[in-house]
Amino acid sequence: MEVKVLAMLLGSVLLAGVVLTGARPAYAENYTCAATLDGSQEVPPVETDGAGTASLTFDSATNTLAWEIEFSGLSGPATAAHFHGPAVNGTNAGILVDIGGASDVSSPLTGSIVVGSNSATYLLAGQMYINIHTSANPSGEIRGQIACEAVGEMKTAALTYGEEEHEIQYSITNGTLTELTGDADNKMITAQISAAHDGELKIQLPRELIDSAAGEQDLDYIVFVDEMEVYAEDDFGADVRTLTIPFTEGSALVDIVSASPPAAEPGLPATTHTVSVAGANIDIAVRSSSTITAFSLDEGSKTVSFAVAGEEGTPGVTEITIGRVLEGPYTVMVDGDVTTDFEVDESSGESVIRLTYVHGIGEVTITGANVVPEFPLAAVALAAAIVGVVAVTARYGKFSFLPK
Fold first, then answer.
1. Quick one: fold of 279-373?
2. Contact at 8 Å (CB) between 52 and 142?
3. Cα(380)–Cα(374) distance, rounded to whole angstroms?
4. Please, how many CA atoms are within 13 Å of residue 375, restricted to the half-sphere of its CB?
5. More confident residue, 125 or 5
6. Any idea where the domains of the chain sit in the sequence?
7. Which end of the chain has the least Cβ crowding within 10 Å, N or C?
8. Residue 372 and residue 382: Cα distance in Å, rounded?
């Protein structure tokens, strides 16, 4: 499973920054509505094993009401189904729309109709209900009040991320967000949803909470819906990024993962040294407990050299992002002698050599196999993104859908 996930992640990152021309499904309805049907809502109540659910959409521009109603457990075949109103819970009202006709009313009931302005007002005011009739209960065996909400209306969901509580703004079309959980160690947020139909989840992610970037280069979040990678629209806001994530009917789990490479460990002072490669200036990041001087690159010998200084006899450490200019394998020499007191870390996207020593030495030289030519920032960001994804998979080693 992890290999499969990594392959999907890499595929996602290779698309980072690329404008995709495939159209997303458009959802034109203005409201989504729902109802739960049972005998207790009938007036008077009916004792029955019957139950049902209804999912509806309402387009306020055309007054088109569409529905899908499922039910089971009735005392006998349904004989009729209607929308009634205006009425609140506990009161009865007349028929507004005949849903299923006088006979052959079976689950699921689907259809649509253009309603009048009064019916539209009742619907949006919560004063319309669904009533399903049987021979044993001709006035109605199960009933459910319809509740609607505007599509795109932002709601608030509580999220625990790390040790802090946050309020996340979201909206959902044709579904319900049942729970939002966070995993700060894995840079991941998981939304559990109930999707009655194809729809989309729009969620606002504060950058200070969970961003997806390599330095100043924004990267696409990696998004899965029920283990399948999907493309999510992103507005790349300055402080808050708003993702629009499509899902299909029956979807249950949305994973949003940051593609940011792991942050460098704090502690060592950082400096930047500039060298020339094929006439182009390249900045090399160095973090060291020592004072670094005489930093240079010899393209002919494929060697970086520099001097280190510090209080004699004390331990020293230097980390140099050597992958910007030299490809491995590497040979490291201290004052002309080969040393093995170094390690190469590639988790940040480029090879970083970490060298340990005792102050009192003079010159350090690092020789590589090849000099790396300059390449564009986009390529650097893409490489960092890929390594970030690899690190997410290898270092963190889990997503919500992987075995725990």
1. Immunoglobulin-like (2.60.40)
2. yes
3. 10
4. 13
5. 125
6. 2-25+152-257, 31-149, 279-373
7. C
8. 17
